Structure formats: C-alpha cells, structure tokens
Amino acid sequence: VVKSEGKNGYRFYQPQLGEDIKKRISSENALTEALEKKQFILFYQPQVNTATRELCGMEALVRWQHPDKGLIPPSEFIPLAEATGRIVALGTQVIEQACEQLALWRKQGIRLVPISVNVSAQQFNQNVVVHTIAACLERYDVAPELLEIEITESSMLAKHAEIESQLAELRKMRVKLAIDDFGTGYSSLSQLLRLQMDVLKIDQSFIAQLGNGSPGLVFVKSIISLAHSLNMTVIAEGVENDEQLRLLQDLSCDQIQGYLISRPVPAQEITAMLQKH
Ligand code: C2E
Ligand code: MG
Ligand code: MG
Ligand code: MG
Fold it and tell me: Which residues does the UniProt record annotate as the domain EAL (predicted)?
C-alpha cells in the first residue's frame, strides 16, 4: 500500500515534524563539516575616528565560504550555530583567525590597530572564551590590547553573574571589552557601572533613526554623554550617510562604523588601508 502511493505516500506516513528534523540534522551536519574543513573566514569592517576619519580599529565579521553556494552571511548560520552549541567551536576559530591575522600584519611590519570579535554568551560556558583568548594571544604572540571582544547587551543581561566574573578576568589580562547593540537590551545604570566596559557600541537601529527632530537624536545624545561620564569610548554602528555623520560629530561620538566608511572587506583590503597610513 505504501509503495503504490509513491513519494507522497511516504510523506503521509511521516509527519511534517519528521521532515523538519531531517532538514535540521542535515544543516547541523553541514555546519560541523564546515568547521572541520575551516570554511569560515573573517571579513573586517573599519572603525574610524569621527572627526579625523583615521582608522582606529576594525570588527571581524564571520562568513561561510561555502564550496557550492559561495559566501554565506552570518544571519543564515549563526542562529543554528547558537541553537546547536556549534557557536562555541565557531567562536574559537574566529578568535584564532583574528590573532593569526594580527600576527601576520605584525610580521609584515604594518601598523597595528585592534580587532574586535563578536562573542556569544555560550562561549562563557566553562570559561571557554578566557582559555581560548589566553592560548591564542600566547600562540601568536599578540598584545592583549589588540584584541577586543564584543558581547551584546541582551546576552550580557541573560547570564550576567557567570559572564561578569570572566569579563573581570579578561580585563585583568588587558583585553578590551565592548558592549554591542547597545540600546536594545535595557541594562540599568548600575549594571553599566559595574561592568566597566571599555567601549559602547550604539545599535544601528538608533543611528538609522537619526535625523533632525527625531526622538532618536535625544536617545543617542544621552547614551553618548552617559558613556563618556563612565569613561567609555562610543562607537556608532550602521552609519550610512553624511547627515548621520554630521550629527554624530556634533554629539562628540568618538568613532563610527558603517557603509559610509566601508562595508566589511577581506583582510587584504584592510592591509592596503593600513599601509596607506
Ligand atoms: P553586529 O556584531 O552588530 O555587526 C554589525 C552588522 O551590521 C554586520 O552584519 C555589518 O555588516 C552590518 N553593518 C555594518 N555597517 C552597516 C551599515 O552601514 N548599514 C547596515 N544596514 N548594516 C551595517 P553581518 O556581518 O551580517 O553580521 C550580523 C551579525 O552576526 C553581527 O551583528 C553579529 O551579531 C553576528 N556575527 C557576525 N560575526 C560573528 C561572529 O564571529 N561570532 C558571533 N557570535 N556572531 C557574529
Ligand atoms: Mg558586533
Ligand atoms: Mg552590533
Ligand atoms: Mg548584532
């Protein structure tokens, strides 16, 4: 009976859930294989001084260099990596590649600026991120000040006790700490005070709303003055046009990052920028 119904008959006996699970297992296997084959590569997006446009640092943003599908953006694999725990192994590869790149630039005698890497809350399980960073800094002989980690405001709020003690360890190692996507997670002033982060990155949704008379302007203005009173460097994310740049200059925002300056680019393009200076 099953045979006579062909493919559709087979589907009839397997609930839709079964198909979803099969798809998920195959994507999970693909992710595992990609990690083994080192198919993840880093692009870098410049962060520049708002007033002088001098290159001050860059954010490492991971891409999956898929053999058939080409470059796959993080939005298409980070959620699954988070859901399956693969984000921990992926995060380790990201930290390693960033340190390797810094060591390469140093060997080439190029002026070094810090690289910031995005870190998931799961990388704080069993102190993984602290161990990984310590090992990579040593292996590649990289100064800790050249590595910065970005952790989103919302993930920090979720598991704060565990994360905070490790952030303190990283701070002791002189690794730089940045709070990412700020403004989307509702942290309290007391949390901000306690965390002692070096850098605050204003989420791009607030920058997109910047414009004369918009409530976004008041919000960004108060974040910047709050961050400055806590001695943090402020970076505006997602700066796309000159009007936003001008407003951010008026508000004394320290650095900007966004398509107006550059999209995330392969390492060689950063090499060229660093050599110009
Ligand atoms: P994020 O850390 O907030 O990174 C900024 C995102 O905004 C990047 O997207 C960047 O390409 C994009 N962006 C930069 N400038 C502009 C702009 O002017 N306009 C607009 N519309 N977008 C801009 P991307 O590379 O697709 O990464 C998306 C997110 O994926 C990141 O957000 C981060 O949360 C996550 N991600 C990327 N790499 C890693 C990683 O190595 N580990 C982890 N855990 N997450 C990562
Ligand atoms: Mg980030
Ligand atoms: Mg961000
Ligand atoms: Mg983000």
Answer: 24-277
Ligand 1: does its nearest atom lie under 6 Å from the Cβ of 74?
yes
DSSP lists the bridge partners of residue 179 as 151, 200
Does the beta carbon of 266 sit less than 6 angstroms from any atom of ligand 1?
no
Q: Extract the tokens encoding 260.
A: 């107006």
Report the distance separating Cα 257 and Cα 52, nearest Å.
13
| Whole-number pLDDT of residue 2 | 44
pLDDT digits (tens, 9 = 90+) for 214-237: 788 999 999 999 999 999 999 999
Instruction: Provide the ipTM.
Output: 0.97
Average predicted confidence (pLDDT) for the chain: 91
**DSSP string covering 37-58:** TT-EEEEEEEEEETTT--EEEE
β-bridge pairing 176-182 and 199-202: parallel
- Strand 70-72 relative to strand 55-66: parallel, antiparallel, unpaired? antiparallel
How long is the chain? 277
Residue 82 in 3-state DSSP?
A: helix
Going by CA atoms, what residue is nearest to atom 45 of ligand 1? 118
Of the listed ranges 60-74, 154-168, 221-235, 255-269, the one predicted with least confidence? 154-168
Q: 199 by DSSP, 3-state: which?
A: strand
